[in-house]
Amino acid sequence: MNVTMLPGGTLRVPATTTLDNGTKVDGTRDIGRDDPEYSAWLALAQDEDEQRRRDVEERDSDREILTRWRTRRSA
């Protein structure tokens, strides 16, 4: 789950929508400072640069684990 701090302070938060046929669709919605949920989401927000850095770190960690797994060492 990513909460993105957009320029100007708007937050892009996860949202699930249920279609008329019952299908659930995951997506996002933007909320502003006047939204009652803003302060709760703000604690989880990261700007796009922070998210990119975190994604790179996770990929590097995953790559390391996969390399150990392929060489049959303990993860």
UniProtKB/TrEMBL annotation:
Residues 50-67 have a biased composition (Basic and acidic residues). It comes from the Bacteria. Residues 1-32, 48-75 are annotated as: Disordered. This is Uncharacterized protein.
